[in-house]
Amino acid sequence: MEDLWSNLFWFLAGTVILLIVSLLHVAYLTYAERKIIARMQQRLGPNRVGPRGLLQPIADMLKLLTKEDIIPAQVDRPVFYIAPFISLVCAGTGIALVPLWENFVISNINVGLLFILALSSLSAYGVILSGWASNSRYAFLGGLRASAQVISYEIAMSLALLSVVLMAGSLNLGDIVRAQINSPFKVYLIPQLIGFFVFIVSAVAECNRTPFDLPEAETELVAGYFVEYSGMRFALFYLAEYFGMLVMSALAVTCFLGGWAGPFEVPYVPFFWFVVKVYALLFFYIWIRATLPRYRYDQLMDLGWKVLIPLGLINLFLTALIKLIF
Amino acid sequence: MSGYQGIFLFGFLLFLLGILLVIANNFLALKRFNSAKFKPYECGIDVSWDARIPLKVKFYLIAVIFLVFDVELVFLYPWAVVFEDLGWFGFVEIAVFVFLLLVAYVYAWREGALKWE
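Output (structure tokens, whole complex):
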């Protein structure tokens, strides 16, 4: 009985801690993005609130909390209310499946990889429902573009992950990491270089980030599908976007970069290498935002359907052949 | 710490957090009524018709091709997990299956379903 209660306690505590830590990461990801992009453009970035602007995310949160929550007259109310929650929950829940270290995973299930893929496809519903419910032209166009883009790139992403599953022989994320540690190269990045490339490009497109941020292209669609949202509902979409980046980076680290394993053990901080790899990928996301211009829509669809999907299929069959021969 | 309850708890906590934030927002924010605020955002131009315009058939085509590929992937995932046990037999079977779908893919490509003007 006592065992049951202590198990339950640790389970609850772990979930709450993970939630708080990932929320803090999401908040400071926005700060890091503004600061890094500012440096790349030879500006200073936020530096007024707190030392070096470190309290900026908190100030932003408080500001959004006191902004008026406007529901335009023409919207479809129930759908308009529920869409940001769909986005947030589907984008954020994936982090609970990722093994941060050998003994810390909130939910260690056999179909972890499939579950993350399912969640990331479901988050397309938040986008398309908000675009439709807003009953505004910009939002509608943004929602249409986003859904077409997300479904196109999802195939390429699944194909890239399929090669990883093929090599590891399991859908459990913890088993995938263990299989990597026991493989000759220690990480799947080297044998799966094509797969990693396909995955990263599709992950950027799935998160609607530059250079694939057509659904929210500021210069033509103002903000895309959430243009009619304001106050905290708008912030929920914002949170969902950055949560999506975090989950995609964590998934890339788990599937391609060897998860919690590193060149040497760091005492007392078992998740050190995992966090370092995630930060490197997040920096990469921000870096390409500062570097690359936006794609045109037809180029975007061509890249997804005519380059990434054939590449993913070729990579899958090459992996299968090599695995059969050796 | 294992099993599905973790995901559901995490998702529920996120949902709860979102609800709490929206409720707090509604308590804290000023509310000033102004009918112009509740119009759709159109850069000041009066809205003359419904925003839900008929959409291009391209989007529908993309969705149909996506469906075909997604079902294909659903078949491929279990295959990838048991690949080692199946060996060459599984490889050839799946190669035939994917080849048949590739014929459809090439057909759709040549018919211009993937072309976007």
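Chain A touches chain B through 82 residues (CB under 8 Å).
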